[in-house]
Write a sequence for this structure.
């Protein structure tokens, strides 16, 4: 479309919160509270309006681009340059995110005016919150990776500032720092990914990166079978594990609940933590080009969903339950990404934003009402429904949606995810575009199982949260305060959204546009042939109802729990339908609790130890050593300098020999670089006569060909070229007198003929007439002799018997010192020069 | 006229500085020394920037200049860098001296002529001018550190700095003598010509190279040659600490890059698997480790800056080591990094000055407690400076790191590994930079602890802080022009 | 290179080494200062010696004068520092300065 008047809207969308942040940050102390509220809420609402107009204007597959200015130009070698623009881009994907972020942010700002009304640093709070929204919009609307990274870091910073907002408490500050550092660990991976992308594709613009994914199919590192796409996807996912709180970097999120509750709702539930999902969707072509990475993401996501879901069950504080619930739901989203269902993940992002923001704000309203500081303990709540009717009803809607009870938003989006994972588990063939995706079936089954258990847990803790808070008798003497209009209004709006958002996905006339345009903006992996079935939906619903039933079972039994009286026959009916609660308690809930406690302790101690304590210890030791060296005594410090100079001398005292062995054009050669002051002498065959430098040392660069005639008599190396290693270096095996068994790892089991796997396929030994190879394969002919310089095939794996040359290389430097090295080089004679893949033979044997 | 323009930044400092010296002798009342000194640096800065846009035609400059001092864009970029660092520190120094009753007019002359020495050092095309520039700069800074004669710490710091510094100077000089002996000329270009013609005594040349680089490594405070830095930084007055990191370190790096570019780039000494890049990479790794780890334990922010300066020297050396792979881009990256480092450290120092008041500097991390709440306008620039030093986008420091690390990653092999280590270690640096921010915003002074009382507002200090903040942010949100200038300068440097 | 020059180099290196070792093992400020001066003078010797081998220009001798001048400036500053230091410690032993460390 490129309409410049419309594209200005994007800039305005972004700048409006920034303006708000600057006004309340710089002049906040001089403005009255009403003015600050107006500026803060107004700027975000304005931003929402701009975003909504822009979003409405773009059609499916279109994008609105605001061309800013040339931000920086990164020079590459070879005169290439990578220009990076400050440009904003809105397509259906970023459009949905923008509207969602601004919309929910506006509601949360409004809620905050009531919730934070007694706060001393009112202006600072809103300045930070507006700054957060600004950064989040930069992240979402960025048209290239570095600009996204600015937003990525910006939201991290805002999160850090807001977690520690009540800075009188040192624990809060520790939580803030933990969040920041964990996020930095993730950012590291993103930076490395940026480097790789620049190097490979020569661009950082999302559309261009996505258009050039084919470049990433090359091997990431020579000799490694991992492709660049796999490495990239894993690096980016690493970044996501920090920002989106996945295993193993998730422990910061529960601690982040130290911040004010609306902050938890906005940053740590609805928006910032989903930016990992957004990044993955933004770069979906990169992700789908690596089935390996997808499998890892699927398993990590499902495991996170399960672990966090179980942990949430044992929590007794409102915000902690919700925090772990968020981690668990993010796990669902990543599981969806793991099967290439990006649009399903994004749909869950949207619905989750509604109901999780609702739940957080609801718990905020509860905390405000009972005057709880920091977090509300479930043991001190109960029976709040009468006093906080609106809050209770909207909270219940949020709970129902979170649990995934049919016909709510959460149901639809969770169903999409389970459906996609179910497809993989049942062995459906997937393809993204024209690229087949191979995720092992066992991974699908494992993930599906974990997700279903997580879904049960979700429904359980969701209802437990509601029941313990709003039902039963009050367990505390505190008389709840009334919750004002500014706080209930957002709750109601979000509650409506928590139901309605789900219907955006349905193929209803006039509504299908949303889903279609979203699907068009990502590269989903789709079943090759139809696929579908209702089983996933039935399983998901059953899981939700099961969890719900257990929750009711649990809390009906509590002595001071008046649940039966309140619900009367309905409750009994439920219980009768679902079984006997004591049985549940013994068979299911008790182990459930035990597992949950175990997982919880694992989270605390092991993960923190691994990522916080041990590095901290190492750093502390290093720091101690470094500062000890700084004794403050002049001659000791001078000695260090002198030692440094001596080290520099040492660097040049003996020549450093560096050589390269190259195999090309059917022969092997040694490459000696030109290195200042270094001269070489080479004896190829160990006969004491120098092939290079017979008259004296010669300076580099030198290239010396090695012929088979230079090889040592009777010594060989077996080179193994599994077909999938392509042009990479072969595996090299030294042969000795005793038989050597070749392992499947060496041979590349994937390429062995069927029936050969698991047995002991190949034994090699050196006999008098040559090297003998004995195979135990059903369709091969047992034993054969391999002559030097010849090759043979086992399955598609090529074996080559290379003559061995012992080359003596001597280097002399300017001071007359000589370094000697003997290189053992397996010669790849002419016949091994071509590395084409040779098709399966009809029968084995030496050629 | 070409001669005049070629040396205009140096002339303006020398001429106005001498003029100021005369005025000082006859002045009856106190003059605004910081404004006068700042203006001189400003003039030099303008002259340098002007020359960057309208380069001097080197062929029109007389040979008696080009033999000793370079006149390419790289030279003017280093002039601009030094003048910028000098400008901000001079503006911030005045209020500091006044507030703490340390007003000594000679400090300004030392600042001026030391910076002049730095310019000569960074521009040197000859071993003689290299040594003269180095000593001119260093002697001035030794004196600046010792200026507060009544403080035992200042004198101790100065003594250590002086002894270790002159030890380092002697090593560099010995290396220069060997290089001269190996090639028969002191001109860097002449030595390079002899080298290309294989007309040097190899053993002397290698030894000379090692000692010259060792001497330069001492001046840039790379580990293990950094041992003077923590004590000197801590002993010095705050503005002098700032001068050391914003001017001395950047001048030394500019000189290192020039020496490498003129003498070694493109020769077999820069062979990556055996030559100088490996050596520089090793120093880089050691510096990053020592600097980042050492800074973790520091309470005194001046000392913290010294260690963090060692870490930054490590990052920069990584960029310098990668010059072999892509000379123009990586030299440009180093230049850009130097700008962000100079601006960032000058900003931090100016903010630190603003926190202290009569008789009591606020230099411990704990002293900053509560300033974020009580003085948001002073705390914010400090936080910006810290984030830039940390390399947080969108501050200038981020692009400095991005360009340098990317260049190293592109160089491949061991250098890609070093780039990874650099990124990892810059995560470690978040701990100590954040401690300062945390103290500003999340701490309140403990019971019985004195609150830091910032000095009253002062026009030139505000100017220094404002200039620093603006630069650091501008280098982050609109870095393209300076990146291009840096590329032009690198092209000029590499001829 | 004739034999004479290499003996200059050996002598210069010896003097430099003596100076460096003196600097590293002695703790008296003035002696350390003298050691540094010795190091500088060894360079002067080298420079003059090399100039004999490369007699076509006078680079080495010019350099020598520059070094002498700068060494004098350095010594002047060093002595001033020594006096300031002595006032605090009543001694010129440099390892008494332990206010700044770690």
């Amino acid at each position: 479309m490129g309409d410049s008047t419309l594209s200005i809207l994007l800039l305005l969308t972004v700048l409006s919160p920034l303006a708000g942040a600057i006004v309340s940050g710089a002049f906040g102390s001089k403005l009255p509270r009403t003015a600050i509220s107006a500026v803060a809420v107004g700027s975000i609402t304005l931003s929402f309006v701009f975003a909504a107009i822009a979003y409405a204007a773009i059609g499916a597959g279109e994008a609105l681009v605001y061309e800013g200015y040339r931000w920086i130009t990164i020079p590459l070698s070879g005169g290439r340059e990578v220009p990076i623009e400050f440009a904003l881009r809105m397509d259906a994907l970023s459009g949905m995110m923008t509207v969602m972020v601004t919309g929910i942010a506006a509601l949360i700002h409004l809620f905050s005016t009531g919730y934070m009304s007694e706060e001393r640093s009112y202006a600072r709070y809103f300045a930070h919150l507006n700054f957060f929204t600004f950064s989040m919009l930069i992240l979402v609307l960025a048209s290239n990776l570095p600009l996204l990274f600015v937003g990525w870091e910006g939201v991290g910073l805002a999160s850090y500032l807001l977690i520690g907002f009540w800075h009188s408490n040192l624990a809060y500050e520790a939580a803030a720092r933990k969040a920041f550092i964990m996020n930095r660990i993730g950012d590291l991976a993103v930076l490395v990914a940026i480097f790789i992308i620049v190097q490979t594709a020569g661009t950082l613009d999302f559309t261009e990166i996505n258009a050039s994914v084919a470049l990433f199919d090359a091997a990431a590192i020579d000799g490694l079978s991992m492709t660049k796409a796999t490495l990239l996807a894993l690096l980016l996912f690493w970044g996501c594990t920090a920002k989106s709180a996945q295993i193993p970097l998730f422990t910061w999120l529960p601690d982040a609940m130290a911040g004010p509750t609306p902050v938890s709702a906005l940053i740590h539930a609805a928006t910032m933590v989903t930016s990992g999902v957004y990044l993955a969707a933004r770069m979906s072509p990169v992700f789908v080009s690596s089935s390996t990475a997808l499998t890892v993401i699927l398993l990590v996501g499902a495991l996170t969903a399960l672990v966090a879901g179980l942990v949430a069950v044992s929590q007794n504080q409102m915000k902690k339950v919700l925090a772990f619930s968020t981690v668990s739901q993010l796990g669902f989203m990543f599981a969806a990404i793991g099967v290439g269902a990006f649009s399903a993940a994004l749909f869950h992002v949207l619905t989750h934003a509604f109901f999780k923001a609702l739940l957080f704000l609801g718990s905020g309203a509860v905390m405000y009402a009972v005057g709880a500081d920091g977090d509300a303990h479930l043991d001190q709540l109960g029976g709040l429904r009468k006093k906080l009717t609106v809050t209770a009803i909207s909270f219940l809607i949020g709970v129902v949606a979170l649990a995934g009870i049919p016909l709510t938003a959460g149901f639809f989006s969770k169903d999409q995810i389970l459906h996609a994972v179910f497809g993989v588990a049942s062995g459906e063939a997937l393809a993204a575009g024209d690229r087949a995706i191979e995720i092992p079936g066992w991974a699908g089954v494992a993930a599906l199982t974990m997700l279903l258990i997580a879904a049960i847990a979700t429904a359980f803790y969701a209802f437990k949260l509601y029941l313990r808070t709003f039902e039963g008798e009050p367990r505390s003497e505190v008389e709840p305060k009334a919750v004002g209009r500014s706080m209930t209004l957002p709750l109601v709006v979000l509650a409506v959204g928590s139901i309605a958002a789900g219907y955006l996905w349905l193929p209803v006339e006039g509504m299908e546009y949303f889903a279609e345009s979203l699907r068009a903006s990502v590269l989903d992996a789709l079943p090759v042939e139809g696929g579908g079935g209702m089983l996933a939906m039935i399983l998901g619903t059953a899981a939700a109802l099961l969890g719900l039933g257990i929750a009711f079972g649990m809390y009906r039994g509590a002595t001071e729990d008046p649940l039966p009286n309140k619900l009367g026959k309905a409750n009994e009916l439920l219980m009768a339908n679902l079984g006997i609660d004591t049985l549940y308690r013994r068979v299911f809930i008790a182990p459930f609790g035990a597992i949950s406690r175990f997982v919880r302790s694992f989270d605390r101690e092991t993960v923190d130890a691994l990522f916080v304590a041990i590095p901290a210890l190492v750093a502390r030791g290093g720091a101690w050593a470094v500062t000890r060296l700084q004794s403050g005594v002049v001659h000791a410090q001078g000695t260090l300098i002198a030692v440094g100079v001596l080290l520099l001398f040492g660097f040049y005292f003996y020549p450093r020999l560096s050589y390269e062995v190259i195999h090309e054009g059917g022969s092997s050669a040694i490459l000696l670089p030109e290195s200042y002051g270094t001269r070489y002498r080479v004896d190829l065959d160990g006969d004491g006569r120098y092939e290079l430098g017979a008259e004296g040392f010669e300076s580099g660069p030198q290239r010396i060909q090695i012929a088979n005639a230079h090889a040592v008599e009777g010594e060989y190396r077996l080179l193994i070229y599994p077909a999938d290693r392509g042009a990479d270096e072969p595996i090299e095996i030294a042969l000795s007198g005793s038989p050597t068994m070749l392992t499947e790892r060496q041979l590349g089991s994937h390429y062995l003929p069927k029936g050969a796997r698991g047995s002991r396929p190949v034994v090699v030994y050196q006999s008098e007439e040559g090297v003998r190879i004995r195979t135990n394969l059903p369709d091969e002919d047992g034993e054969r002799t391999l002559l030097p310089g010849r090759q043979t095939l086992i399955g598609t794996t090529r074996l080559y018997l290379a003559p061995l040359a012992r080359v003596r290389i001597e280097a002399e430097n300017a001071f007359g010192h000589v370094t000697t090295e003997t290189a053992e080089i397996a010669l790849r004679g002419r016949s091994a020069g071509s590395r084409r893949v040779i098709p399966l033979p009809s029968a084995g044997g030496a050629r | 006229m070409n001669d005049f323009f070629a040396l205009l930044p140096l002339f303006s400092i020398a001429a106005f500085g001498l003029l100021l010296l005369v005025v000082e002798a006859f002045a009856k009342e106190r003059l605004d020394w910081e404004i006068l000194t700042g203006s001189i640096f400003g003039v030099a800065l303008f002259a340098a920037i002007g020359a960057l846009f309208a380069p001097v035609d080197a062929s029109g400059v007389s040979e008696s200049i080009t033999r000793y001092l370079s006149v390419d864009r790289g030279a003017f970029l280093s002039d601009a860098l030094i003048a910028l660092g000098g400008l901000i520190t001079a503006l911030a120094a005045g209020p500091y001296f006044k507030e703490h009753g340390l007003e000594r007019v000679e400090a300004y002359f030392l600042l001026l002529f030391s910076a002049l020495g730095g310019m000569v050092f960074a521009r040197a095309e000859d071993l003689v001018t290299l040594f003269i520039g180095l000593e001119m700069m260093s002697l001035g800074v030794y004196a600046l550190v010792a200026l507060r004669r009544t403080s035992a710490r200042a004198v101790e710091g100065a003594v250590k700095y002086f002894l270790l510094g002159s030890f380092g100077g002697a090593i560099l000089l010995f290396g220069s003598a060997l290089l001269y002996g190996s090639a028969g000329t002191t001109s860097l270009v002449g030595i390079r010509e002899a080298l290309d013609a294989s007309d040097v005594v190899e053993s002397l040349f290698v030894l000379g190279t090692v000692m010259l680089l060792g001497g330069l490594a001492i001046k840039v405070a790379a580990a293990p040659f950094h041992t003077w830095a923590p004590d000197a930084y801590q002993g010095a007055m705050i503005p002098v600490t700032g001068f050391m990191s914003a001017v001395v370190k950047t001048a030394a790096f500019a000189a290192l890059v020039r020496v490498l570019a003129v003498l070694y780039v493109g020769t077999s000494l820069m062979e990556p698997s055996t030559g100088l890049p490996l050596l520089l990479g090793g120093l880089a790794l050691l510096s990053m480790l020592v600097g980042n780890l050492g800074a973790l334990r520091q309470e005194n922010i001046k000392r913290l800056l010294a260690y963090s300066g060692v870490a930054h020297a490590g990052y920069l050396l990584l960029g310098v080591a990668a010059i072999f792979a892509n000379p123009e881009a990586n030299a440009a990256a180093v230049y850009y990094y130097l700008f962000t480092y100079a601006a960032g450290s000058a900003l931090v120092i100016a903010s630190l000055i603003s926190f202290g008041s009569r008789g009591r500097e606020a230099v411990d991390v704990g002293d900053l407690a509560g300033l974020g709440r009580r003085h948001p306008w002073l705390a914010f620039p400090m936080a910006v400076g810290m984030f830039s030093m940390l390399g947080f986008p969108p501050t200038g420091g981020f692009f400095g790191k991005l360009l340098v690390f990317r260049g190293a990653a592109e160089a491949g092999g061991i250098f890609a590994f070093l780039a990874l280590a650099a990124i990892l270690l810059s995560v470690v640096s978040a701990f100590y930079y954040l401690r300062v921010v945390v103290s500003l915003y999340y701490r309140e002074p403990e019971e019985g602890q004195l609150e830091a009382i910032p000095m009253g507002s002062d026009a030139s200090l505000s100017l220094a802080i404002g200039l620093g903040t603006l630069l650091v942010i501008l280098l982050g949100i609109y870095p393209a022009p300076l990146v291009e200038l840096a590329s032009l300068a690198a092209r000029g440097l590499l001829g | 290179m004739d034999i004479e020059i290499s003996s200059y180099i050996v002598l210069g290196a010896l003097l430099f080494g003596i100076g460096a070792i003196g600097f590293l093992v002695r703790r008296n400020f003035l002696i350390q200062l003298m050691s540094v001066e010795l190091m500088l003078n060894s360079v002067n010797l080298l420079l003059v010696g090399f100039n004999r081998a490369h007699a076509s220009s006078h680079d080495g001798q010019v350099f020598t004068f520059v070094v002498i001048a700068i060494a004098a400036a350095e010594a002047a500053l060093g002595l001033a520092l020594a006096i300031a230091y002595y006032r605090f410690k009543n001694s010129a032993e440099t390892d008494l300065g332990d206010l700044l460390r770690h």
